[in-house]
Amino acid sequence: WFRLGLFLAFQYPVAIPGVTVANFLRTAINARRRAANPEDRGVPIPEFRKMLKAQMDLLKMESSFAGRYLNDGFSGGEKKRAEILQMAILKPEIAILDETDSGLDIDALRIVAGGVNQLKNPDKAIVLITHYQRLLEYIVPDVVHVLYNGKIVKTGGKELALELEQKGYDWLKN
Q1: CB neighbours of residue 88 within 10 Å
Q2: Sign of dihedral through CA atoms 15, 1, 108, 50?
């Protein structure tokens, strides 16, 4: 799925002991490149390190983070930043971010939201799943859809999210 340009960020990312963040990302980006061109020999290590450092700086991550095992012993904020880092490196056409705000303190929320905002562009679709308005204070949505019982029951702009915050969900069930 990621080789085809689809990225999924999980509410609770799984730890992968023994696989460093850098090795995971380099393997993933090379798989994506080879899916597009089987002759591709992969991103050269110096180029990858430069790309990784630039994206880690964007997300205010220490360089030592790249050598840690993926999500192993990470705080909630570190897990979410690791996922946004993956999104930044893999450059998907479609990204689904499932409750990216879950488990984040306010500083981590700002950093993660800043990373998402840096990655937004007209050639990328980002589906952001959240139950709370606070994330939308930092990432302004183009469109808001409300799902209830597996169906979209209301669609609007960013003002719909504010209305939900004020009224709750009960008024939509009728």
Answers
A1: 21
A2: positive
pTM: 0.87
pLDDT tens, the chain, 174 aa long = 556 788 999 888 999 999 999 999 999 999 988 888 899 999 999 999 999 999 999 888 999 999 999 999 998 889 999 999 999 999 999 999 999 888 888 888 998 899 999 889 888 899 999 887 888 889 999 999 998 888 999 999 989 988 988 888 888 776
Q: Which residues of 139-171 are buried (b: 16+ CB within 10 A; e: fewer)?
A: bebeebebeeeeeeeeeeebebbebbeeeeeee
Are 9 and 95 in contact by the 8 Å Cβ rule? The answer is yes
Measure CA 26 to chain center: 17
Contact 77, 111 (CB under 8 A): yes
